[in-house]
Each structure stands twice: as C-alpha cells, then as structure tokens.
Amino acid sequence: MRVFIAGVDGYLGWPLAQYLAARGHNLGGIDCQLRRRLVVEAGGESAIPVAPIQDRLTAFRECFGEELAYCNGDLLDYDILLSAIDSFQPDAVVHLAEIPSAPYSMKGPAEAAFTQQNNVIGSLNLLWAIKTAAPEAHLVKLGTMGEYGTPNLDIPEGFFEVEFRGRRDSLPFPRQAGSFYHWSKVYDSHNIMFACHIWGLRATDVMQGIVYGVSVSSDLRLCTRFDYDAEFGTIINRFCCQVVIGHPLTVYGSGRQQRSFLPLEDCLHCLTLALENPPGKGEYRVFNQFDRFTSMRELASMVQEAATRLGIHTEIRHLENPRQEKEDHYYNPDRQHLTALGYSPHINPQEQIAFMIEKLLPWKDHIVTRRSVLIPEIQWDGSRRLATQLDTRGIP
C-alpha cells in the first residue's frame, strides 16, 4: 500500500512511517516543521534531541532500503499539497498535520485564530487535494476523544440512535469540546463527513485518547520527539520528565477529571489496523481509539509507583486548575470498532511508564535546563497568566 502521511515529522508521524515501512508499505509525506517551531516559541525543547529532517530521511533510507518520498510543505499552501498528493498517488492518507495543543489555542486571540486556521483550512485543503488527485484514497484523520467532552451519557463511536417526537434516526453524537483546539477538530469531523457524503470519499475519523510513550532506537535519528512543556507535552510524558529531574508531579485541580489514554505502540498498531481495513466508497466511520481511561489523580499515583520501583522518590502536588472543565463527571466511552478488527490492549501502563523513565534518565541534564516550562501559565478564561505556583529552588 502507498501511504502518505501529512505531519510525517511529528511525534506520531515519524514512528508511524517506520512502523508501516517495516510492514512493507511504501511511504510518502509532507511537513513544514511547524511543531518544532511552536515548541521552541513556548520555551520548550524535545527531551530527546530531534535530528534535522534531512538526517531523518537519510536514516530512514539506510534502515528500510528505500526513500520516504518527502515534501517540505504546508497544508495551507494548496498548490504544494496538491502536487505532492498527485505525484505520490497514495492508496491511503494519514492526516496528523495539525496544531495539537489545547493550551496553545487558549493562549490568546492570535493563537486561537491560527490554531483554527491551520487545522480547519489545512484539513479542507487536504480533502480537496484527495478529491482532485487521488479520489479512491482512504483518509485516516486523527481526531481526539476531547471532541465529545464529558457528557452525562455513555460515549458511542461517532453516532447514536435518537428518538424524538415519535421518529428515530442515527445522528452524530453531540460534541462538547473544551478548547478552541478541540473545536477545530469538531469542525474537521463535520467537513470530512460532508466530503464523504457529497464526493464519495472514504474516511476513518479517529477519536484518539492521550498518547504516551517513547520510541527507542540505537540510531537517534530514528527516535521520535518527546515534549514535556505545559503547552505541547501530554500529561504522562510530562509526569515522566518531572520524575527524572526530581520535580513534583503537578496535578491540575482535584485530579478527579477522567480521560482516555493510549500507549504510543498501541497507537501505531491501531492506525495500521484502520489503514489495512479501509471503509467502502462514500463511507465515513468513527473509531474511538484508546487503551483505558482513568482520573488524573490515579494517573499521577501510577507514575509515582513506577518511580518508586526504580528507587526514585516523587511527590504529587495539586495546582490551581488553569482549565475550565468539570472535575467530577461521568465518563464511559465505547471502543468496539478497533476491537472487532483485532485490537487488544496488552501493554501494562506501569511497566511502560517505568520503561519511559529509564529511557529519559540519560537526558536529565537536558530536561532540567527547561524545568520552568513544566508549570502552566495559560488560563482558560483568558483573564491572566498563572504565576509560577511551585517553588523550584533546590530542585537539581
């Protein structure tokens, strides 16, 4: 299969390209290195140094014996995107090329507008490019479980049966997103569903939980990035970096908020299952993609226990919650579609977390120089920035 990855230089895109190449698929991709720039602007840096894209591509060729057909381009530039799709002629397109940060989208008017412009217009451009140059290609679009919010109902996979005034229908499950980033994903979902209906495209919209994990290779050029700042670092990855430098684990609010999670390895496996089992022409389907769900407080305790097993003492501290969200809520999402395709969670999260900590320990000095970015500064209500709430003096 010829698979084109939009966002191939990213946290998920780079290891996915390798995972698919190892299965014999031919790879192409596009990226403009926006994630690299935004993390630096936020004061962060990947815990594991990221090689320049040309070095990565060289390593890919050396490892897999073939080129990754790469285009240095932005999805907002339709002509470049269309040319790349037309030249590669993919059987499938994986769309990972979006700004993946709720905090960044709540930072201010410029960041909110740029998040939605980049994500929504970039996705629309991709839909038009597929329609024009590769109309039979299967689009696998990375969404987020955050599109659903925290309704006081079970969360189905995209659609649910509704009865109203004596009539029944299957309708998209209502979205209750919690940030301008998450709303951009909601708009993507509606646009993709419409494109499948009106143009006969085929698409899988993946509502993914929070991914955690580190890729391991003796060749650093093949490792993926690992962000830990409060804007672009996902919570488990951030906790593991806090453990490594002796920083308390920072839990927002009460920590009773429930969220879905997925190890990086399982994420790659699930995306591959979706790619290798495409929908029919004109079909828009939704997969909820996660391993398990748990509260932030329970998650911090899991990381603390994993650290203890490694002989590392770690404290848990609660911070004022910078987000506007329910801290006590019902949460019970479905996950049948991937299970039907053969997905079965098999990774023990505490073992995986301990593995992550061990792999990050050699980069302790690299991480500690930017420890200030571990504390959130962005308030969801836009009223002010949070002052540093944790005294980091004495932390090595």
In the CATH hierarchy, the third-tier topology of one domain is known as: Rossmann fold
- Rg over CA atoms, rounded to whole Å, is 20 Å
- DSSP strand (E) fraction? 15-25%
Uncertain segments of ≥5 residues (pLDDT<50)? 387-396
Q: Which range best describes the helical content: under 10%, 10-25%, 25-40%, 40-55%, 55-70% or over 70%? A: 25-40%
- The total of beta strands comes to 14
What strand order characterises the main sheet?
3-2-1-4-5-8-12
For this structure, what is the CATH class of one domain? Alpha Beta
- Overall 3D shape: globular
- What's the main sheet like? 7 strands, parallel
Short overview:
The protein has 396 residues and is an alpha/beta fold. 37% of the residues lie in helices and 18% in strands.
Describe the protein.
With 396 residues, this protein is an alpha/beta fold. The chain has a domain at 2-214 and 263-290: 3-Layer(aba) Sandwich (Rossmann fold), CATH 3.40.50. It is 37% helix and 18% strand. It has 13 helices and 14 strands. It has helices at residues 13-22, 34-41, 53-64, 78-88, 102-105, 109-133, 180-199, 235-244, 264-276, 296-309, 337-340, 349-360, 364-368; strands at residues 2-6, 26-31, 69-72, 92-95, 138-142, 159-164, 167-172, 202-208, 210-212, 249-252, 258-263, 284-289, 292-295, 316-319. The strands form 4 sheets. The protein has a 7-stranded parallel β-sheet, with helices on both faces. A 3-stranded mixed β-sheet has the order 9-11-13. β1, α1 and β2 (26-31) form a beta-alpha-beta unit. α4 packs parallel to α6 (109-133), α6 (109-133) packs parallel to α7 (180-199) and α10 (296-309) crosses α12. The chain is globular, with a radius of gyration of 20 Å. The N and C termini lie far apart (49 Å). Mean pLDDT is 95; it is low at 387-396.
